[in-house]
Amino acid sequence: MFGIYKIPFQTDAAGITVSVECEGETSTYRRIAPLGTLTKRLGYREGRVFINPVEPVNLPSEVTGMLEFHFTPVTLRPGSSIPICMKFPVEIGVFVGAAENYTLLDVFSLARPKYSLYGTPEKGFITRHVECEVYEYAPPTNPFEEGVLFLTIKNSARDWVEVSRAVFDASMLRIFHGRIVAITGEMEVYSRLVAETSVLDLPPEDGMKQSLRVFPTKRMLIPEKQPFMMEYGVGD
After folding, report:
1. What is the number of domains present in the chain?
2. Domain membership of residue 76 as a residue range
3. CB of 30 within 8 A of CB of 105?
């Protein structure tokens, strides 16, 4: 299903149907999925439609721009690093236009979103919450439902640390798709309370394509932030 389509078209995968049908001088976009359907009338009948995984913070609608992974604790000695893998829920974006000039038409998912609070009620913020296991290698996934975060954690603190949380700003996220859907990230821990997260603009496997992003299509009042500083702890 992920790819570029010329109007009119229909594509089906994993119980999802996405189509654009021409009707006179206009066309109709339809999405049928297990968690909902959508129909939109389009004022044109020619063009290209891009379907790819997007930043998983868009549903139900602009609740947060932060993605939080809460995972099985990982303990690191001072000066050490470890690569791990974790699953995250995939959201699918549908764009219309050209690669350098496109607009978002639809976002949907096979996973129901969950949210949490990172930090204190007074100064913390809402996050898209992902409860996940830690894997040594990329686990099997349905790419229309789950992706894989390839995360390298480095302990720059003077003490041993136990890490069970990683928070990312949506403006940092770069998603790649191919055999799997993936994000490649880094986390540098400075203490039990402070860490820095960043996302690499590199795919974890050869031959993967980078997804169009929802973030640049939204009007933002602040610039993209990279890296992101976690200041409310890296553990439970």
Report:
1. 1
2. 3-230
3. no
Q: Please state, in angstroms and rounded to a whole number, the distance separating the CA atoms of residues 169 and 39.
A: 31
Please report, for residues 6, 44, 68, 98, 224, the alpha-carbon distance to residue 25 in angstroms, rounded to integers and kept in the order given: 16, 6, 45, 20, 39
Question: Taking the C-alpha atoms of 215, 201, 181 and 72 in order, what is their torsion angle to the nearest 10 degrees?
Answer: -100
191 vs 175: CA distance, rounded Å: 28
Tokens for 92? 């699918």
User: Is position 14 within any domain?
Assistant: yes
Asked if residues 198 and 156 have their Cβ atoms less than 8 Å apart, the reply is no
- Does residue 19 fall inside a structural domain? yes
First to last CA, the chain: 38
Per-residue pLDDT 10s for the chain (236 aa) are 999 999 999 999 999 999 999 988 999 999 999 999 999 999 988 889 999 999 999 988 778 889 999 999 999 999 999 999 999 999 999 999 865 688 999 999 999 899 999 988 888 889 999 999 999 999 999 999 999 999 999 999 999 999 999 999 988 899 999 999 999 999 999 999 999 999 999 999 999 999 999 976 554 434 455 688 999 889 88
Pairing of strands 176-177, 36-42: unpaired
In a domain, 235, yes or no: no
Q: Does 130 reside within a domain?
A: yes
Q: Which amino acid is at 82?
A: I
pTM of this prediction?
A: 0.91
Report the C-alpha dihedral over residues 129, 132, 137, 139, rounded to 10 degrees. -100
In angstroms, the CA 2 to CA 180 distance is: 11
